[in-house]
Amino acid sequence: MIQLGILAEDDPVELLEGWLVHKMPKNPAHRAATKLIRSALEAIIPPGWYVDAQEPITLVDSEPEPDVMVVRGDTRDYLDRHPGGSDLALVVEVADSTLERDRTFKKRLYARAQIPVYWIVNLSAQCIEVYTQPTTVEELTYQQQQNYGQSDQISIAIAQQEIGSLTVSDLLP
């Protein structure tokens, strides 16, 4: 669509389940949360992984742009393609005006792609919703959900190995 001139490269849309969906503008709290999470993850991520933010990933029928993600390998491993579900250990969506979309469409997309851990950083409730154990059955979702409040610690695991923990209050603006 970009090559045909229908869309410009900087048009605020992402492909979700075959539909072009308008991306909401980011407010200062959203930007701050994204940066805080990215920095915290970069401080504990092991070799062989890297943290990226607001870049496309390629799934079966979608190309979302998670706010933060932990990706296997190195940036140069993806010069000819975007990371896919099997390349990701964690995806994070920061939600204020997009909470419903993140809890429905995005959660279904990430579960279908078998991304092991999905976070929704709920700015309104000042908590982080952590979804784990994606299902492979017809209703694509995550089997486990746990909400973490500001004083809670979230254990971070990559490839089923715990690499550290982060305090929720350090991740929220």
As for the number of domains, it is 1
- Helix amount: 10-25%
Rg estimate, integer Å: 15 Å
CATH-derived topology: tt1808, chain A
Which structural class matches the secondary elements?
alpha+beta
Order of helices and strands: EEHEEEHEEEEEH
**Shape by Cα distribution:** globular
- Low-confidence segments: none
CATH-level-2 architecture = Alpha-Beta Complex
Strand count: 10
Beta-strand fraction estimate: 25-35%
Oligomeric description of these chains: single chain
CATH superfamily: tt1808, chain A
Q: Quote the distance from N terminus to C terminus.
A: 36 Å
Side by side, the strands of the main sheet go 3-4-5-6-7-8
Instruction: Count up the helices.
Output: 3
The first-level CATH class name: Alpha Beta
Describe the structure.
- 20% of the residues lie in helices and 34% in strands.
- By secondary structure, it is of the alpha+beta class.
- A six-stranded mixed β-sheet has the order 3-4-5-6-7-8. Strands 1-2 form a two-stranded antiparallel sheet. Strands 9-10 form a two-stranded antiparallel sheet.
- Helix 2 (99-112) links the parallel strand 5 (88-95) and strand 6 (117-122).
- It is globular.
- The model has no long low-confidence stretch (mean pLDDT 89).
Summary keywords:
single chain; 173 residues; alpha+beta; tt1808, chain A; 6-stranded mixed sheet; two-stranded antiparallel ribbon; 3 helices; 10 strands; 20% helix; 34% strand
